[in-house]
């Protein structure tokens, strides 16, 4: 995998931005994947977008949402008593997701949520069974800053109180792997045969593998853009 990484990186200029994703981040941010640095919002969005595309290609109707989902949900929760959630255009897209889940147009929703400013947890919502699957690679129980928001939103759309269950996730042994293990847990939850849980001893290699996927998406998009110009 390391030789593959060297070969890929030798093809990349280190100036300019990463193409193929919603956020235009500098190419040099790819190097974070090949380090022991904590994965930031940008990286989580990239990893979740890769998962979203993979699941779509497999015919899945699961909604995989990036970091903006819970951030917007928290804003809606903060003004829950004002009627803004039902009326504001700023919340129209998450209202639409809620409706799609209730109507069965989507089979579920998966996302990552930041807790305490320095930790990522995985969330999978099952509207059919009224279950919130909560995956914390440190094994911690669901925290109130997350549950109060999810409880409000799921009840708003369904009138039901959802129960919490533990999402299977690889146990974290360091201070930086939560951003890798969480999305892997979401993939495993929805497609266990395709996404086995990561062996924690191979976490570094998995980070490099993700970097290669992001770099390949960039190269593919750059090739498409060049051919169209």
Characterize this entry briefly.
The chain has 229 residues and is an alpha/beta fold. It is built from eight helices and five strands. Strand 4, helix 6 and strand 5 form a beta-alpha-beta unit.
Describe this structure in words.
It is a single chain. With 229 residues, this protein is of the alpha/beta class. It folds into two domains: 65 residues, no CATH class; 140 residues, Ubiquitin-related (TATA-Binding Protein, 2-Layer Sandwich). It is 47% helix and 12% strand. The radius of gyration is 18 Å and the shape is globular. 32% of the residues are buried. The model has no long low-confidence stretch (mean pLDDT 92).
How would a textbook summarize the main sheet? 5 strands, mixed
Q: State the helical fraction.
A: 40-55%
Query: What is the CATH superfamily label of the largest domain?
Result: Ubiquitin-related
- Bin the strand percentage: 5-15%
- Which segments are poorly predicted (pLDDT under 50) over 5 or more consecutive residues? none
Strand line-up in the sheet with most strands: 1-2-3-4-5
If you average the pLDDT, what whole number results? 92
Keywords: Hydrolase, Protease
GO biological process, one term: proteolysis
Family: Belongs to the peptidase C48 family.
Domain Ubiquitin-like protease family profile: 1-189
């Amino acid at each position: 995998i390391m030789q593959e990484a060297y070969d890929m990186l030798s093809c990349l200029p280190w100036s300019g931005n990463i193409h193929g994703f919603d956020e235009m981040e500098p190419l040099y941010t790819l190097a974070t994947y090949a380090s022991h640095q904590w994965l930031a919002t940008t990286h989580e969005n990239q990893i979740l977008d890769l998962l979203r595309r993979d699941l779509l290609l497999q015919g899945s109707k699961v909604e995989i949402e990036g970091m903006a989902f819970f951030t917007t949900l928290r804003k809606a929760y903060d003004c829950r008593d004002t009627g803004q959630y039902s009326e504001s255009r700023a919340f129209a897209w998450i209202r639409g997701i809620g409706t799609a889940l209730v109507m069965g147009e989507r089979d579920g929703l998966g996302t990552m949520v930041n807790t305490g400013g320095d930790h990522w947890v995985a969330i999978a919502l099952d509207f059919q069974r009224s279950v919130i699957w909560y995956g914390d690679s440190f094994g911690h129980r669901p925290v109130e800053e997350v549950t109060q928001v999810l409880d409000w939103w799921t009840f708003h759309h369904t009138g039901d109180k959802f129960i919490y269950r533990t999402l299977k996730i690889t146990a974290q042994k360091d201070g930086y792997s939560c951003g890798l293990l969480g999305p892997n847990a979401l993939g495993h939850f929805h497609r266990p045969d395709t996404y086995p849980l990561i062996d924690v001893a191979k976490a570094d290699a998995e980070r490099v593998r993700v970097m290669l996927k992001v770099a390949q998406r960039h190269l593919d998009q750059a090739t498409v853009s060049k051919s169209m110009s």
